[in-house]
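Closing statement on the flavin-adenine dinucleotide sub-project.
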Amino acid sequence: MKLTEIFKQNKYSLSFEVFPPKTDDLYDSVKTATEQIARLSPAFMSVTYGAGGGTSKHTLNIAKNIREEFGVESLAHLTCVSSTRETVNKRIADFKAAGIENVMALRGDIPADMKNADRSGWAYRHASELIRELKESGAQFCIGGACYPEVHPESATQREDILRLKEKVEAGCEFLTTQMFFDNNLLYNFLYKIREAGITVPVIAGIMPITNAKQVERAIKLSGSFMPQRFKSLVDKFGSDPAAMKQAGIAYATDQIIDLFANGITNVHVYSMNKPDVAEKIQSSLSDILGKNA
Ligand code: FAD
């Protein structure tokens, strides 16, 4: 099923993200974690794509397994980074053959050793170019893209970022998933601005449950997210106690989701980081809410 059909149902829903193993020997443990998350019957599951290229083949296998074994709709990611026209055409054919209907088209995180490289020769420099290719392939994928309530770190201004986002939607992106954020007001503000700019596609709120203190640093470095004082206090207080930090981080994420649902957002994507226990705890805390129509 195309994800846009799920979003049209106007029901509160959670979806979860998993990432493929970095090395082949970790495949089985990732597969097990993925299957445990799939048993929660989320609205869908996304499978990221290693822009470095190394383990990208596993994205397809995992996305296929989620659909075929568990009947959970999957969203396979694909990046411009490390993709030639040939690799993209091969992925399109493989996704089609595997029955994948939903593709998240991304520029990709640029690996450190490529940061200063000349990108003029890349087949696709921006997600919108990859989206156009996917559209023109005739494969009829439902295509998603990323958006940034706190502005993409490479954009000079939010205005410019939103103009680029609009181009991405016009290229054929049918829904957007946000980068993680820890202050819901940033999302509400962003939604107001993009709707005003004429971007009308569904926006799925991306929530990252922070379950250990180290993850905080990584999250800020990667996304540049603003940490509200309420969140900082929680990390200060519980960061050195792993069990307490995990519990507090899950509660914070759950609280964020409840506020989002209460303010008109129906679809939330949880960056569950291959952690079935985290996914399960969030979902079970929201069971009555998820059972209700929006
Ligand atoms: P783009 O849409 O191409 O935007 C990147 C920057 O370029 C922005 O500043 C934008 O404003 C600007 N821009 C866009 N078009 C143009 C143009 N025509 N001219 C000039 N500037 C332009 N990374 C992975 O490697 N693998 C994954 O699986 C993955 N999944 C993700 C899922 C989500 C929901 C999110 C939010 C991010 C994900 N990422 C992933 C990270 C993502 O690849 C990075 O954030 C990357 O830096 C930008 O990707 P993008 O698709 O948003 O790029």
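The CA atoms of residues 67 and 98 lie 9 Å apart. With this model delivered, the sub-project is considered complete and its resources will be redirected to Aim 3.
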